[in-house]
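Translate sequence into structure tokens.
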Amino acid sequence: MCSGIRHLPIKHNERTFEQFIRVVFLPVDYNIRGTIKPGWEFVRNLFRENFVQDRDLGASVAAYYQGSLAFELGGGWFDQSRTKPYDVETLQLVFSTSKGLVAAAVALAVQRGLLDYSALVTRYWPE
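Result follows.
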């Protein structure tokens, strides 16, 4: 096996020719930067796969666990020509991405008896 060839995470027949050439023959630098606490290294690997499989050109992710920052990563590129790095400071429009998280948080609060679906909104948010 050639020492320059890396493991391909998906089957070769699921890649475009450009993806195949880029992954196999070109040096890989997905520009991944950030901080990560011990025990969370698997997140960096999953984040990297996001770029290996061409799911995103650039992205960032962060999460808090038990009140402290577990990881904050940014990587890839902001532009198609790959001249502007995408990092944790890159501003991004998120539109409606919080709706699912808010719905899950509300459902959890209801389950724990902190909220009541049938209560008036003014019970929690007075005028």
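Note: Confidence is low (pLDDT under 50) at residues 1-10.
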